[in-house]
Design a protein that fits this description.
About 30% of the residues lie in helices and about 25% in strands. The protein is α+β, with helices and mostly antiparallel strands. It has 2 domains: about 35-145, 60s Ribosomal Protein L30, Chain: A (2-Layer Sandwich); about 165-320, Alpha-Beta Complex (Phosphoribosyl-aminoimidazole Synthetase, Chain A, domain 2), CATH 3.90.650.10. The protein is globular and about 55 Å long. The protein starts with 12 loop residues before the first helix and ends in a 13-residue tail after the last strand.
Length: about 325
């Protein structure tokens, strides 16, 4: 690959090749190469730190906008390490000619999302670039949080016998972005699930003494996230397709557009992997929270080569690999 292509930002195989072959070659270290959603650090006690860039198109979409997304996305990455998000920084790259009213709308949305998530934005930066040098507005946020449990959840801790949960219907965000981008309307409108998951995580951690893995299935969707966990832990993950919650309007929209909801991005869902002995408590805890009322037990972790196996409604099995290309670029 002599030039960067769009699928290098997809979260799929091209993204992983770029990270492993280039960034790890020069920047790799023991913390970075764990490849969790956030980095577990020790600064006189354990803290979680994460950073993320946001470049969604369109900037405003049903259920959210780039401002709320920039808060929720980083807050959720911190929470996936079993941490309580506390502080964020925000950096803006603004294209010359961008409407001030739209920028105010984005910043106001960030303020509301930060207040709801219980975090403070404590530092930031603003750059304005010439017209044509950026596509409207890019935002980068960095977050810091206090780790609440030890050992912290990690993609490396999935073990044979564990149970896999998803906190609610998948594919909402990806399809909402696609519909807004293309001006599509469905009989039942599709909205992004954009939300901060810190409260849901704390409810789960309070009820379950040991949570092995927490991940938010953003770019690449549920299947890509499960493949990442399987690779980190060197296990097989077996999933029951019928158990995976997908809203009927998302199923219909994906069928019309030729998309697979299991590969579409989510911005308000989590995957939890817990020991079988704690499965009932985990399920009850997830369903007790407004963001987890449709949580589902979708599969198990097994010994074997790193892979994700899906049992279909007809009883057959298929391997579910990461996508090689990109179903939908510019979604977060």
């Amino acid at each position: 690959m002599e030039r960067i292509l769009l699928d290098a930002g997809s979260g799929g195989k091209a993204s992983h090749r770029l990270i492993h072959d280039l960034f790890f070659r020069y920047l790799g270290n023991a913390v970075l190469q764990r490849m969790d959603d956030a980095a577990l650090l020790d600064l006189h006690g354990p803290v979680a730190m994460s950073t993320d860039g946001f470049t969604v198109s369109p900037l405003f979409f049903p259920g959210g906008d780039i401002g709320a997304l920039a808060i929720h996305g980083t807050v959720n990455d911190i929470a996936m390490l079993g941490a309580r998000p506390r502080y964020l920084t925000a950096a803006f790259v603004i294209e010359e000619g961008f409407l001030l009213a739209d920028l105010e709308r984005v910043v106001a949305s960030m303020a509301r999302a930060a207040q709801e998530a219980g975090v403070l934005i404590v530092a930031g930066d603003t750059k304005v670039v010439p017209k044509g040098a950026a596509d409207g507005l890019f935002i980068t946020t960095t977050g810091l949080g206090e780790v609440l449990v030890q050992p912290a959840p990690s993609g490396h801790r999935a073990a044979p016998g564990d149970v896999v949960f998803v906190s609610g219907p998948v594919g909402d965000h990806g399809l909402a972005i696609m519909a807004a981008r293309e001006g599509l309307s469905f009989e039942v409108p599709v909205r992004s699930d954009c939300a901060s998951l810190g409260g849901l995580v704390e409810v789960l951690l309070a009820a379950v003494p040991e949570v092995h893995v927490l991940r938010d299935p953003t770019r690449g969707g549920l299947v890509t996230t499960l493949n990442e966990i399987a690779g980190q832990s060197q296990v097989a993950i077996h999933i029951n397709e019928e158990a995976i919650p997908v809203r009927p309007e998302v199923v219909a929209g994906c069928s019309f557009l030729g998309l697979d909801p299991l590969y579409l991005a989510n911005e308000g869902k989590l995957v939890a992997v817990v020991p079988e002995v704690h499965a009932d408590a985990a399920w009850a805890a997830l369903r007790s929270h407004p963001l987890g009322v449709q949580a589902a037990r979708i599969g198990t972790v097994c010994a074997g080569p790193s892979r994700v196996v899906i049992t279909t409604p007809l009883g057959g099995q298929r391997l579910a690999d990461m996508l090689e290309g990109e179903q939908l670029p510019r979604i977060c």
